[in-house]
Design brief:
Number of helices: 2
Distance between the termini: 52 Å
Mean pLDDT: 87
Low-confidence stretches: none
Structural class: mainly alpha
Strand content: under 5%
Length: 88
């Protein structure tokens, strides 16, 4: 991704898709006591990818920016901590 290219959609690998489909199936069975078919699993995963993943992704970016800004503030104060008291 170049520096001006924007994020458009979450792309999952086949193994990630399989793992998440298995998680959805397990969730429905454990939490609701219901069997869920492969088509329903795929539809739910598509919903998550298209609607929820961008929200979570943007939140993560906001959190990283907040962390980075704090780290830069700390860097600035840490930098000046190395200064020696000198008088001429």
């Amino acid at each position: 991704m170049n520096k001006r290219e924007t994020f458009t959609q979450v792309k999952l690998s086949d193994s990630q898709r399989k793992k998440l489909n298995d998680e959805i199936k397990t969730f429905y069975l454990d939490e609701r006591g219901e069997e869920i078919g492969m088509i329903e699993q795929m539809q739910l995963l598509t919903l998550f990818e298209e609607k929820m993943a961008p929200v979570v992704y943007n939140k993560a970016l906001d959190d990283v920016k907040k962390w980075f800004m704090q780290a830069m503030e700390n860097l600035d104060s840490d930098y000046y901590a190395f200064y020696k008291n000198i008088s001429f």
